[in-house]
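Researcher: Re-running this chain for the archive, since the previous output was lost when a drive failed. Same request as before.
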Amino acid sequence: MKKYLVVAALAVAVVTPALAADYYVALRVGGGGCEVMTSQPTDTKKYKMMGKYSSEADAKAAMAKMAECK
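Model: Regenerated structure tokens:
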């Protein structure tokens, strides 16, 4: 029984961070369109933050609707 609890705890510890991932849409300054990133852009000279989303699909859908990204 202990073995199953340990395995379950390890599985939750490994899977939980992947489910909590955030996605960011960043506009490349100077042209070049937008891209989806898994970490928040920190270089403000290269990227302008356009939004934070809970899934990659949401980020891509929002990016498709942004006039700046086309």
